[in-house]
What we know:
Elements lengths: L3 E2 L2 E5 L6 H10 L3 E4 L1 H9 L5 E2 H5 L14 H8 L5 H9 L7 E4 L4 H6 L4 H6 L4 H11 L5 E3 L5 H10 L3 E2 L1 H27 L13 E3 L11 E3 L6 E5 L5 H14 L6 E6 L2 E7 L3 H11 L8 E4 L2 E2 L1 H7 L6 E4 L1 E2 L1 H7 L6 E5 L7 E6 L2 E6 L20 H15 L6 E4 L4 E5 L5 H14 L8 E2 L1
Parallel strand pairs: 2-3, 2-5, 3-4, 5-6, 13-15, 14-16, 15-17
Antiparallel strand pairs: 1-7, 8-9, 10-17, 11-12, 11-13, 18-19, 20-21, 20-22
Helix pairs in contact: 1-9, 8-10, 12-13, 13-14
Amino acid sequence: MASKKIKSALISVFYKDNLDSLVKKLHANGVKIYSTGGTQSFIEGLGVPVIAVEDLTGYPSILGGRVKTLHPNVFGGILNRRENTSDQAEIAQYNIPEIDLVIVDLYPFEETVASGAEKQAIIEKIDIGGVSLIRAAAKNHKDVVILASKEQYGVLEGILDAKAGATDIEDRFKFAGEAFDITSHYDTAIYRWFAGDDITGFKHSIRTSQTLRYGENPHQAGTFHGDLNAMFDKLNGKELSYNNLLDVDAAVGLIDEFTDTTYAILKHNNACGIATAKTGKEAYLKALASDPISAFGGVIITNTKVDKATAEELHKLFFEVLIATEYDQDALDLLKEKKNRILLLRKPVAFAKKQFKTLLNGVIEQDVDLKTETLADFKTVTNRQPTDAEKRAMLFANKLVKHTKSNAIIFATEDHMISSGVGQTSRVDALNQAVEKAKAFGFSLEGAVMA
Length: 451
């Protein structure tokens, strides 16, 4: 039958969040519940009858909890095919009860690695029984429901309410697919930890995705694979587009080169203005002056708090995205007056150290360029030695040209990009472009440095 009532469940989870409501729902529907260890104690604490897995297997938990559910009485109850007469004869012969629902999550392997735990502690968080239960239930989804994540509890509750305690094959198939998504991600994380830097092939797993309005152009579909919520709080505005994300990524890479109060304005992944100053307002106005035309519709980023004085200047410009580490409330209130204006609060999270690009029938990979050159990396090859101010200007300009598409030319002082030539097939053309832009916006190049 495509539609099946749940009559029995095996529940063994590491995280108990949101489990109580589902357990009570199952009990109200007359479902027999089997469980282990801490989960069993949790269910008993709800006043719900529960049968210990040890009573089902005839064996206690052994090896310090490493073996609890790995037993034919458990897996036979999950994997038996209800319409297969041979399977039914065998489970009857060995008195194995059927299990219609498996609720299992996995030990927090990735979280343990991220915590800096010792090797043995990490190994102990490699789940064996949980993965086996998930795979068994998902394989036999024709007859069994598998929940491998606490985010699914409410979904199943809704299905049981709507279908009188039953599920359809479509429901079970969907849960099974999600289960294999979880186990494949888990196995990839374990492999990458064991492999370290000696990874064979392209083995990466990102479970979180969001569909974008479109890709680079409206006729292209677009998707972001990753968790933007881990990097930013979106305080206002529409959803980020494919092109927004490219600019946001470029903006973050650029601003992280600077520790002084800095504002940068980007368009098509290149800075059209950047400056450092004593105040945010001064830095923003200096950055805007470099190319106020290109700044229209751009992405703005700062490494300082956005205050009311700066917000009043920002508010005069149409821009797509503003990224900051902090906002004063009165500044935020003003900037939110434009409902589509995207305001992002950046979180202190480490960004990827690898870059990937698909091409031909594969992917190329490289380390992110995290090198920031110092004066020790510079060698003077002329008779005239640069002044201290010129050295500081060269450091500033060198940071900018690193984040500018080749062929690129940057004219700058020690705290301000005067102009740029970007993405030209000829360095001469890039130079001419930078010179003409400086003239167009009223800047003299006398005393400037070039990178």
